[in-house]
Amino acid sequence: MSALLRQRLQRDRLQLLLWILGTAALAASAVGGAEQSYGTQRDRTEVLAAVMANPVILLFRGLPSGADREAFTLFLILPFLALMAAFMSTFLAVRHTRMEEESARAELVGATPAGRIAPLVATIVHGTAADTALALVVAVVFLGAGFPPLGALVAGAAAGAVGLSFLAVGLVAGQLLRTSRAANSLAVWVLLLTFLIGGVGNALGTPSDDLQSITSSWLTWLSPFGWAENTRPFADDAPWPLALCLIVAVALGAAAVALQSARDVGESLIPQRAGRVEARALLSSSTGLVWRLTWSSLVGWCIGGLVTGLLATSLASVIDRVGTQIPAVEAVMAALSKNGSLQQGMVVIFFLIVGVLAACAAVQTVCRARQEEARGTAEAVRASPVGRVRWLADYLLVAFAGVVLVVASGVLGAVLGVAGSATDPTFRTDLVRDAAVSGGGQIAAASVYLVVTALVFVLAPRWTIGLGWTLVLAGVVLGLFGALFGLPDWVVSISPIADVPAVSGDTIDVKGLWWLILASVAGAAASLTLMKRRELAA
């Protein structure tokens, strides 16, 4: 057991360090940003009153628990800290269970005195230690900011407890499905669904008489994110909802151990779908093969883009009708939309999320190339008349098509969001125009992530997956939270998704569009040129 645990710590030391430090940096940025953007009690009180009038905002924020500096900071950031812990834990669980079986390493370990159950138990201990470390680091960040000790500990424990719940979700997903890719997809869909359920549960809650806090609806209690938020750090400091996270973690962990004992190595509870007797014409080309391998994940990202675009314009319409005038909120929106209207700021925010989804689709597709290479299946394709440059170009082409489809889905959602609105037709047209401009820019931004990941794949294949997703994470932190936390414009502009064209009044500010296009073209050309001299790296 100790040898297996050391092996996991050795293998994951860099990845876990990046996840934990990234979460700590997000918490620290929230402290400084909330102080800078909402520095007075009046600012925070007005923001919370606006939240009560526009409950859709709660889909992407926490549970309001008062206008004090500490509680307000956790309202802004706690769900995202828990989200980071959840992603870290699910990927860790699948990586050390189903992925090990796919690569046949689990069978070799099982043939030793370690047996079949010890590796799974080692993964549970490893994941628990990682979530505990994340919880402690988050608590230390809040303590260092001068927040009360009890609330800091509850906040850290809330993030870590959500991570433990999704560690168990990842373990069960690895038992149910045959491939690590499918297991990761299932775990992520459960994660996103429960995140949305928690947000909807908050939005349907009951505001207090002073419009400073909300009592969650029953729906929130179906989500680990809702349990974490109902601890209300720095307000009630009630750790008892986290017991639900622990119960789920123990129950699903025990189920994973039982399923591991009952099935053969390499098999799964849900059998893999049988293939066709004869291949479709699509598989007559290497490009068609890449599309066949990646289309299902691209569909998932497109659905996310559609929903985000729908929220972008529907929420902007709500804000226009309410006519909220809050200086602190307007300042953040103006920073995002380059002094445009409040509605334009909302469209920009949501299309930043569309850009993140498009970048994720691109990075995942390039990472698929690395997985095919590492497993040896790329060698079989290369044995046919498919050159190494053509092989990589196919992945770049499909990844770019995925970027365009995700953004197009977002724009379609934006159109649907205003189609049934009772607002002025000119206002609806302006919102769709803003969405199209922002979406077009996000295509260029996501393409930068695509070509940078491709360059990493060519130059340092083993770093492809880890570094590719790390770059996306850095872009998310800067692009989505930079303006909210009051970071300088030049720092926010480091993220490609935040440096795209925006509508300011009736004019379009192209910002860094030409640099993004130039970087994308140069990066694609460089990666394909360097691939000419690169051998397959198993």
Structural description of this entry:
With 538 residues, this protein is mostly helical. The protein contains 19 helices and four strands. The protein has helices at residues 2-37, 41-53, 69-95, 98-102, 105-110, 117-144, 149-176, 180-203, 224-229, 242-262, 286-322, 327-336, 342-375, 377-382, 388-419, 425-459, 464-481, 489-492, 513-531, and strands at residues 206-207, 214-215, 502-504, 507-509. It has a two-stranded antiparallel sheet. Strands 3-4 form a two-stranded antiparallel sheet. A hairpin with a 6-residue loop joins β1 (206-207) and β2 (214-215). The longest helix has 37 residues, at 286-322. The protein is globular, with a radius of gyration of 23 Å.
